[in-house]
Amino acid sequence: KTVVGSARSVEEINIYELIRECSGKLLKFGGHSQAAGLSLLKENLQEFMAEIEIAAEKKHFIGDTVNVNVDMELDIDSITEDFFERLMTAGPYGEGFEAPLFVSYGLKVLSDRKTEKNHHIMILEGKSNTRISAVWWFGEDKSLQGKVFDAVYKIGKNTYKGKSNLQLTLAYVIESDGEVPKVFNGKIIDERGLDIKLLMEKYRQALFFYEGLTSKCPLPSAVDRFGVKETENLVFLSTPSNTEVFREIIALSNPRNIILNFSVLPDYSFKGFVTNLLGLIKYIVSKEKGMAYIESMAIKLGVEESIVKSGLKFLKAAGKIDYILSEDEMMVFLFKGSGMTDNSMFLAEKRLRNALMEKNAYQQFILKTEAENFREYLK
If 112 and its partner were Cys, which of 145, 191, 264, 335 is the partner (CB 3.0–4.6 Å)? Predict the structure, then answer.
């Protein structure tokens, strides 16, 4: 009979005050300007939703104009590790003492990879060809790749398994004029079929890219998308999960030479994928207390997050596992299944098989594509 909810807001909207104005039929509420909680009778839910939506639109609808107080204009060429550490010494930041907001003009979007939730993972280039990654949470439906825009943002770090990269968190973007340069102007070298030991000897100072199960990669120093740094030679040991990731890795590493090897491949057969997924789940349950990020699992299996979720649905329907997704579907909590199959197993298996067939077709296409044709992905 009772509905309980939580709220999160952006800096410009005081969510607590908005809820307070519409609190006539609430049982309880509390919080602050950026986060709040509330409860009400289920029978009053629709009326409350309508009331608060109208109140929000009346109070905060601003048409085509956005007024933002930024701390300073900044060229992204100035964003270095030292600059970030100096910012952190002025913290900690939080409610009532927000992290600084910066504005940059004429940023070029070299790469824009969208997630299921319309999060935009981007590689931006500044005036002096400096490149940096950026994220725009719950952005537009359309891609910004190949566009130029002005942006307001905060500076942070994206940390994953001990690896940290500077990353901008975009608050506002406005399209601007200008041309976006080519992501890559160097040489593409075809080394498919070359043994990894010989490859390592030939390209001693190269950055080796690999996404897949750790146990399958003979090179411990290989990095995934979170470990990519600027390099002269970039070697692909595995096929990227899709063309967007391929472009993103190259945009961020800005190499002079791309070396194609593809000698360590993900297994996209139904049996192989399910076996690897079960093995990964066993490790997560025993070593990570059953908790994992969907993105991390996707990287380990060389697929998109949607295929990991399809695999989990199939295993749950088959009674092998059970799980709970976090509210934002970024994290999963895994535990033992019921041991009983349910009526949805056939459909879940069919969907997973179809998705893996598409991945296998993509992989075969990549393996057979002539080296110079990879430039098509980088235009």
Answer: 145
